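Aim 2, interim progress. The first record below pairs a target sequence with its C-alpha cells.
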Amino acid sequence: MGKNKLPTVSVVILGWKKFERLKTAIKSVLNQTFQDFEIIVAAEDDDKLVPQIQEICKSFNDDRIIVIRREKQGISAGRTCGLRHARGKYIAYLDEDDEFLPNKLEKHVKILEKLDNDVVLTYAQHWGWDRKNNYKIITPLEKDAKSGHLYDYMIHRYFEKSILFQIWDAVIKKKYVEDMEFDPDLAAGEDDFLLLLVKKGKCIFIPEVLHIQNLDAEFRPSAAPVNSMPSAKDSGDDIIFNKQAEIIYKKHYNYITKKGIKYNRTLGISKSFLMKGTRIIRMGSLKEGRRHILYSIKIKPSLYAISIYVLSFPGKNFFIKALKARQKILGGMN
C-alpha cells in the first residue's frame, strides 16, 4: 500500500502484555485474503511495555502496522484512541488474544461495498474456542439474529436477555463513528457503543463464523474471581448490578420506558457468572469455578446452573465431556 493511499480497513488491536498472543493476532490479519488494510496497535503507555510491542510489530517488516501509545485509562479509552488514529473507510476491532479467520475482512468489505449508504455495520458469528480442552462453542447463540434497523431489537435483547453481539463481530463504517467514543466511565463500554451506533442506521448479519475468541487465553478479565466482580444492589422491582448497567440504562431511559421494556439484569448477570465458572473449571481451577457458579445460583437459581455445579464434582475431564455432550445436542451454550 502506497504511503499516500488510505487503507480500506483499519484494524485496531489493543496491546498489553500477551506478547505471543499479540503475534498470533497480527498474523491473522496479515494472512487475510483481503489485503487493503492498516493495523493500529494501541499499546498501553508504559516505558517497558511499549518498546516490547514495537519490537514485535517491527519483526513483521510490514509498514501497514502502526504502533501508537494510549493512556492508561482502560479498554474503552483505548478503543477510542485507536478509532481516532484510524484512516480506513471501515473499522474492525480485534483483541490481542483473539484471531480473524482468513476471509473475515473480505466477507465484510464485499457486503459493505454493495449495500445502501445507511448501513452502519455488518456483524457475523465467532467461535469461542478452548484449544487446550478441544472445546468449541459458536456465538451469537441466538438463532434469530437479524438484519435491518435493529435498535429496538437490540435494546430488547440487551435489557431483557442480556445478549448482544461483540464489537469484534462487526466491521463498522467509519463515517458513522467519527463523532462517537467508547464511554471512558465504562471499563469496557462496547455494549453502550453498539447500542448507540445501531440507532444510526441498518445492520447486516452475516451467518458465518469469521472470528475466533480464544477461551483458553491466559489472564482474561472474564476469569476474575468473584470478589472482584460488581455486587448486586436492590433498587425496588429492578436490580442495578453495577455502574456500567446503570449508565447504559440512563442513556436509553426514555425509549425503555416508552416501549415498556423490563429492566431486570438478574438473569443476564447470573448467566455471566455461570459462564465464567465453567471457563475457570476448564482452565483447571475447580474450587474457584464452583464459587462463580454458586454466586450465579445465589443471584438467579436455575436447574441448569445447579446441574452444572453438580457435574463439576466428578472432576474436570468429566465436566468437559458433559459440556461437549450438551453442545452437540443444542449446538452451543446459552
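The second target in this work package is listed in the same format:
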Amino acid sequence: MLTFDRRNKILEYISENGSAGVHELSIRLGTSESTIRRDLADLASAGKIDKVHGGAMLPSLEFINREDSINIKVQKNFEEKMLIAEYAASLINDQDYVFIDAGSTTFLMTRFITSSKATFITNGIAQAHELVKNGCKVMVLGGELKDTTEAIVGAVAAQNLQKYNFSKAFIGANGISLKQGITTTDTSEAVIKAVAVERSFSSFVLADASKFGKVSAVKATSLDSVCIICDKCDDADIKNKTVVREVGK
C-alpha cells in the first residue's frame, strides 16, 4: 500500500472512531508498528491528528464557555469581519424579507446596508439602531434583553419569530465544527438562531476563520442547513459538508 493511501486510511479510521492505537492500526492495515508510528508523527506534524501515548486522536477542539461584550467582540479580527460584513450586505435585494441576528459581524454588516427597501427583523439592539439610522424599515423582536450581547432572546422572542417567513437570514456563531455544527454559548440565543434558519429560504452564518475548530455549549443548527461566509476556511471536510464562501482571498 502506498504511503499516501495508508495515511488516508489512518485518518479515516481515526475520524470514525475518535482515536486509535498503534497496535490496532498495525493489524488493521497489515503493516509494522514502526511504520504506523512514522505515519502518525508526520500526520501530527501536519496538524491532522494529535499524538498521544500509544496512538493518536482527532485534533482537540477548543471549547468556548464564555462570551465577550459586543464592544469587545467587534474589535477582534476587525478587518476580516469587515470583509465578511460587506459581502453579506451585498446579498440583500430590495424585495428581501431579512432576519439579522445579534452579533459583532452582523452589526458590522448593517453599516453597509444603506437606503435598502428590504424589510428587516432583528433581535439585536445595535443592529436595529444602525439600520434605522441608514433609513431602513426595521422591526425588533420582543423578549428578554441579554446584557452582554445586547440581544433579545428567550421564549417570547422565539415565539414572535415563528410568525415570520424570511427570504434570507444572517446569523452569528461562537464555534463551527464538523461534528457539532454551528454552536453558541447560550441556549436562549441558540433557539433564536435555530428558528431563524428554520423560517428562512436561505441562511448564512457570518464567521471569521477563528471560529473554525471551536465548540460552544449549545448547538444552534447543523452545517448543511446554512451557507458559511468567512474570510477563509482551511477545513476541507467542512467545505464538503456545506457551501462555504471565502471572501478574504
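The chain has a mean pLDDT of 89. This observation will shape the mutagenesis plan for the next reporting period.
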